[in-house]
Amino acid sequence: MLLVDTADQNAILDALKFPGVQGFTTNPTLIARAAGVEALSLDDYVAAARKLCGMSADVGSIRQLMIQAVGGPDETRRQAILYLDDLKTAREKKLWIKLAPTATSLACCRALKDIGCASLATAVFTAAQAYVAMEAGADGVAVYLGRLMRHERDWEKQLESVAAIVKSAERTLLLASFPDRQTVEAGLRYSHDITAPPSVLEDLLTSSLSQEAIKAFDEKVASER
Q: Which SUPFAM superfamilies match (predicted)?
């Protein structure tokens, strides 16, 4: 699963032209950035997220969308119901609600499943967090790989432990927080489900060796016309 990490509607639509992109992920920071503000009220945040859902309902190539819940269990469920309503009858879309790795948030997993949403524990950095998320019924976890690599010397061991727990539960391990293509390539050893910002997404097919090879092919054809 390849997703774009942005809340900007134009950036999402552009990213969908890239081979393999199935949808997008968002969070409060990205939604505020797309709105051009430092922070949003809860009402404004939900309104912005609902606009993304409305757009998704009308764009066939969006098959996966991930929106972060803000607030307690009742508020999380309320938001999820609103987002599902905005998706209208587009039942082929998979709506993921992102949850903080806390006891209060993860307690929402079952209720979200009951109304037709998938749940994703986000900002997971430890094996213990991943284990509790799986036991709580989360459909996946998101690890901020770039941040993990910057702050933990033994990041590989930590990620291996998280990946093993998620794989054993047959759930989704989404890797995020990619500053560059090299970090994506490091992450692909552990999961093929990633979300990348538009700038990194565009760089995924970059290779000087590929460019040299294609140039040689093109020159060969041109020389024989």
A: Aldolase
User: Cα dihedral sign for 172, 173, 177, 181?
Assistant: negative
Q: How many domains does the chain have?
A: 1
The pair phi, psi for residue 98, each rounded to 5°, is: -85, 135
Partners of residue 118 on adjacent β-strands: 96
- The residues, any chain, with a CB within 8 Å of residue 99's CB and separated by 6 or more, are 68, 69, 76, 105, 106, 108, 109, 119, 120, 121, 122, 138
Q: Which token pair is 68? A: 């972060």
Domain that holds residue 16: 2-223
**Gyration radius from the chain CA atoms:** 19
Distance CA 35, CA 33 (A): 5
Over residues 166-225, the pLDDT tens digits come to 999 999 999 999 999 999 999 999 999 999 999 999 899 987 787 778 777 777 776 555
Report the CATH number at residue 79: 3.20.20.70
